[in-house]
Design brief:
transmembrane helix; two-stranded antiparallel sheet; mainly alpha; 18 helices; 2% strand; Growth Hormone, Chain: A; globular; MFS; 2 domains
């Protein structure tokens, strides 16, 4: 994978954030996703504070995670069909009400508690996929969109690090129930900030072929989702292995240090990746990045002393944000017309399901073989992700549009229902796209989550 500096590349993330609505959309999406980023932690803390067992806390958190995985692609498809405001804000409100019900009712009635977290998870709005669908119409230039995807991945690391800290702060200031309510109220406000913006209000998905599989009819997307299931599995296994490592060293805070080091590595990697212009097809680049990601996981099995282990944790995260950023470009290239939000939501789902599988696999490995072998799960999962991308390279080599341009598949609403023009002559933006999984479809013209 080659890199070359350009004027746009040197402009960095500031160029993206200075675009109209960009900072608002990114900030609103991050705040809107706080409930999702903190949900499992908040549920576990609340359940324990109510006198529930760790088993009950884990079961409630698992139901929340499974419901979120089910709801994301369904709501993503609804966004593609109905637009963002009609889906995102109502979903955010219903999801928040589910968590408020849990906070008010407690765990005295288990059916109510499980129903509340299921509703909260199922209606978690697909803000992440929605933001990525908006970037091309907000930024226009393909290179700026690539940079926005990298910024998106970096911002996720910040959110998943700062979110749990915010929960613990709210708990210390008031209570676990208050943390649930405040975090979800913030989530609704974040979603509101996004959907009342002009790009979100005017965004419309491109016409889509009626097909029950939706985005899943793209072979390239299926290959990508299969690979990122294993990337998620690697991260999920590290969370369990990290706890075991901290217990081995007799200091619980080491677990937090390990995750912070991993996030720091991802922040550095994402910042460097997004500041460069990368030549060549993103599918080939993604294979190279995932290969480096897998290699970064392997040394964790050495489980050295705390200080060198923190260095290895940072190294293991170095290529995570670049892998995510590059995968966003690949999703956009392979999503059938009119399914872009759904496609991004499926990526979130497969990654989350993989993380859940990783925690399930690493637990028995810790108990049966020890901490070092539990870290080996991450390395094996990284190699499995690389194997999937390598085995499906021919499928991934041909994007939906065939031309290799980033697109949103969006049509801004206009007086006549969305007339289309080529807003960037010569770039492929706004031009017709050939959906190799269906019929020829128009792209987006003028105009629009993490």
């Amino acid at each position: 994978m080659g890199a070359g500096g350009t004027d746009a590349g040197r402009a960095g993330y500031g160029d993206v954030l200075r675009a109209p609505y960009a900072a608002r959309l990114l900030g609103g999406t991050l705040v809107g996703r706080l409930p999702h980023a903190t949900g499992p932690v908040a549920v576990v803390l609340f359940t324990r504070a109510e006198g529930g067992s760790y088993s009950l806390a884990g079961a409630l958190a698992a139901v929340y995670g499974i419901a979120t995985a089910v709801g994301q692609p369904l709501l993503g498809r609804a966004v593609d069909l109905k637009g963002q405001p009609r889906v995102q804000l109502p979903a955010a409100v219903v999801s928040a009400l589910g968590m408020v019900l849990l906070a008010v009712a407690g765990i005295g009635s288990l059916p109510v508690a499980f129903g509340a977290v299921a509703v909260a998870g199922l209606f978690t709005p697909p803000l992440e996929g929605g933001l990525r669908a908006l970037w091309p119409s907000v930024l226009g230039d393909e290179e700026r969109v690539h940079r926005a995807y990298a910024l998106d991945a970096v911002a996720q690391e910040v959110m998943f690090t700062a979110g749990p800290l915010l929960v613990t702060l709210l708990v210390s200031l008031h209570s676990e129930a208050a943390a649930l309510v405040v975090i979800n109220a913030l989530g609704v406000l974040g979603a509101l900030a996004v959907v009342v913006s002009e790009p979100s209000r005017t965004w419309r998905s491109a016409p889509r072929e009626a097909h029950w599989l939706g985005a899943l009819r793209s072979p390239g997307l299926l290959a990508l989702f299969g690979a990122f299931f294993f990337v998620g599995l690697a991260l999920g296994s590290i969370t369990v292995a990290g706890v075991a490592y901290a217990e081995d060293h007799g200091r619980d805070e080491i677990y937090g240090w390990l995750l912070a080091a991993l996030s720091f590595g991802a922040l550095v990697g994402g910042a460097v990746y997004g500041a460069r212009h990368w030549a060549g097809a993103p599918e080939s680049r993604l294979r190279a990045i995932v290969a480096l990601l897998a290699l970064g996981y392997l040394p964790l099995a050495l489980t050295p002393g705390v200080v060198p282990m923190l260095g290895l944790a940072a190294l293991s995260g170095l290529f995570l944000a670049p892998a995510l950023a590059c995968s966003f470009v690949v999703v956009d290239r392979h999503a059938p017309a009119g399914t872009v939000t759904e496609a991004f939501s499926w990526l979130v789902t497969t990654f989350g399901v993989g993380a859940a599988a990783g925690t399930a696999v690493a637990g028995p490995v810790v108990e049966g073989a020890g901490t070092a072998w539990s870290f080996s799960v991450a390395g094996a999962a990284g190699l499995a992700a690389l194997l999937v991308l390598t085995a499906t390279s021919r499928v991934l080599a041909v994007p939906v549009g065939g031309a290799g341009t980033v697109r949103s598949g969006a049509v801004p609403a206009g007086p006549a229902g969305g007339a289309e023009t080529d807003i960037l002559p010569g770039t492929g933006f706004g031009s017709g796209e050939n959906d190799r999984n269906g019929a020829a479809e128009p792209g987006f013209s003028s105009g629009r989550e993490a």
